[in-house]
Write a structure and sequence with these properties.
Helix content: 40-55%
Strand content: 15-25%
Bound molecules: uridine-5'-diphosphate
Distance between the termini: 42 Å
Order of helices and strands: EHEHEHEHHEHEEHEEEHEEHEHH
CATH topology of the largest domain: Rossmann fold
Structural class: alpha/beta
Number of strands: 13
Shape: globular
Length: 342
């Protein structure tokens, strides 16, 4: 019998790539999304890539406890990967209640449904944002979490704690994995799925590709006076397909009962720091184009540098980032051109 994985927020950027990899690995996937921050474009792309027209899609708002409950009753869910959350840092500062209500409420409903069915494997999509500006780099999973600097970041920390406590209290019925993502970028090599930001992108790579295609006039590089080799911030950019594959390893580890502890944490990164300027230059080089950019003031809240020590994921999960930054930046550009119909 194939095992079934529920992907909450499965129509979005990360969820759609994860769905493709899960199906490729032989899992049945139920995709559920309230479509509050995406449309069906990526889900349609997932069906094309996998050649599967029968992937169940459920339009569900996980803040609706009864609907969440009904979803678990309808399918036999062996594992749930929880993505359904709001993710704009700036907006979370302006609308904290909205963020706490949505991001905590949806996760609590998922956990309640998991408890009610007698147990489940739960993978939570966390973020390197929990490390803030680390004192020591690269960061391991043991590096201390720093106080959150936005409600968005606070919800990631709170959901981590909620899952840890729930696993602890469940007597082995609920198992958990927290994946802490660094900076996911790029798109599927088919260019059929990718990032679809609504409005002006907050993240660097969508802003780069939209500038290159002519949707934005000029990229602002936020600060070139940081204490880094070229003065711009350092991040660990992780290819979206590599990131998606980490989920397959993690889910399989839970399903096979191979965990060392009932709730485990893994950094999902490359271990390779790349500056904003290096990324911009690499994008220009691999795609053979010139980008219109300018140096702008620092963006409030940005940390100077953060990158992963991915040793635990490499050795314990057996997962490793494989695609080069060049391949990833090429795929991001192919996706942008696909969107523009070019
Ligand atoms: N960045 C930039 N211009 C932009 C967007 C981002 O210079 O239009 C920089 C940002 O200051 C940070 C890096 O790119 O140093 C990555 O930012 P992003 O928002 O993609 O991810 P974050 O690391 O903030 O989660």
């Amino acid at each position: 019998m194939k095992k079934t994985v529920l992907v909450s927020g499965g129509a979005g950027f990360i969820g759609s790539h994860v769905t493709v990899e899960l199906i490729g690995a032989g899992y049945e996937v139920v995709v559920a999304d309230n479509l509050s921050n995406c449309d069906m474009t990526c889900f349609e792309g997932v069906k094309k890539i996998t050649g599967r027209d029968d992937i169940p899609f459920e339009k569900v708002d996980f803040c609706d406890a009864a609907a969440t409950e009904a979803l678990f009753a309808k399918y036999k869910i062996d594992a749930v990967i929880h993505f359904a959350a709001f993710k704009a840092v700036g907006e979370s500062v302006e609308k904290p209640v909205l963020y706490y209500k949505n991001n905590l409420g949806s996760f609590l409903n998922v956990l309640e449904a998991a408890e009610r069915q007698g147990g489940c494997n739960v993978l939570f999509s966390s973020s390197a944002t929990v490390y803030g500006q680390p004192e020591k780099l690269p960061v391991t999973e043991e590096s201390p979490r720093q106080p959150a600097t936005s409600p968005y970041g606070a919800t990631k920390q709170m959901c981590e704690d909620i899952l840890q406590d729930t696993v602890k209290a469940s007597g082995g019925k609920i198992k958990g994995i927290l994946l802490r993502y660094f900076n996911p970028i790029g798109a599927h090599p088919s260019a059929l799925i990718g990032e679809l930001p609504r409005g002006v992108p907050n993240n660097l790579v969508p802003f780069i590709t939209q500038t290159a295609i002519g949707k934005r006039a000029c990229l602002s590089i936020f600060g070139d006076d940081y204490p880094t080799p070229d003065g711009t911030c350092l991040r660990d950019y992780i290819d979206i397909v590599d990131l998606a594959k980490a989920h397959v390893y993690a889910v399989t580890r839970m399903m096979e009962g191979k965990m060392d502890e009932p709730c485990e944490i893994f950094n999902v990164g490359t271990g390779r720091p790349v500056s904003v300027m290096e990324l911009v230059t690499a994008f220009e080089r691999v795609n053979g184009l010139k980008l219109n950019y300018k140096i702008a003031p620092r963006r409030p809240g940005d940390v100077t540098a953060v990158w992963a020590d991915p040793t635990r994921a490499n050795t314990v999960l057996g997962w490793k980032a494989e695609r080069t930054v060049e391949e990833t930046l090429r795929s991001a550009w192919e996706w942008e051109k696909h969107l523009a119909g070019k």
